[in-house]
Amino acid sequence: MDETRTQPAAVRARGIVKSFGSGDTQVTVLRGIDLDIYQGEMLLLVGESGGGKTTLLSALAGILDIDEGHIDVLGIPLNDLPAGKRTTFRGQTMGFVYQQFNLLPALTAAENVAVPLLIQKTGRHEALQHARAMLDRVGLGDRTEFLPKNLSGGQQQRVAIARALVNEPRLLICDEPTAALDGHTGQKIMELLREVGRSPDRSVIIVTHDSRIFHFGDRMAHLTDGRIVSIEPIAREGTA
């Protein structure tokens, strides 16, 4: 961990252990994870396949219960919350971007983006207004009424990013957001995430295998065999 940072930690994880199965078939995936994600930063989480990256994301989001340890998100002890309150907290404070986009095929781009707001009981008209404004921010103001099948892969990922950001989350969680895209489109998506995804009071964590996007991050955490083995700052062009 980087003890020299002055920003407050949006996420603070200590001693996280998670296993699956029992008895002879039990597999321990996370083995005492300690990790801070600071406000205003983009943290990249890297490591070999099967090393526990997606499991760690799910634990940090409160989707998976952990066996041992403690997770604070925005000062809230996540693993102490009952399941229902955890779900509500997640919907109010977190946004998610996945590799496979997960757009609903029968809904327009605007309707897909509006889904998180509708879940939170925002009126349909207001939700769609916010959705169209967010689509405009990600460069799809002229595609709001298109179905996903009529959008390119890069455009579909932009819709997914707009959906993740429409409720102004404090924590943006991305699982391989460029893996299904060609190199050029992946670079554009990362530029977009840095432009609209980062802010002084928002944190972004990205699981990735894509070395072409490493330079977009602020720090990189290496996860090996269920353990964080190193966390290092990322030097970008023009920096020493």
Plain-language structure description:
The two termini are 21 Å apart. This protein has a domain at 42-55 and 82-233: P-loop containing nucleotide triphosphate hydrolases (Rossmann fold, 3-Layer(aba) Sandwich), CATH 3.40.50.300. Helix 4 crosses helix 5 and helix 5 (153-165) packs parallel to helix 6. The strands form 2 sheets. A 6-stranded mixed beta sheet has the order 6-7-8-3-9-10. With 240 residues, it is an alpha/beta fold. It has helices spanning 53-60, 83-93, 109-119, 124-137, 153-165, 183-197; strands at residues 9-20, 27-38, 42-46, 68-73, 76-77, 94-98, 171-175, 203-207, 219-224, 227-233. The longest helix is centred in the last third of the chain and has 15 residues, at 183-197.
Gist of the model:
This protein has 240 residues and is an alpha/beta fold.
Topology (elements, then pairings):
Layout: E1 9-20, E2 27-38, E3 42-46, H1 53-60, E4 68-73, E5 76-77, H2 83-93, E6 94-98, H3 109-119, H4 124-137, H5 153-165, E7 171-175, H6 183-197, E8 203-207, E9 219-224, E10 227-233
Parallel strand pairs: 3-8, 3-9, 6-7, 7-8
Antiparallel strand pairs: 1-2, 1-4, 4-5, 9-10
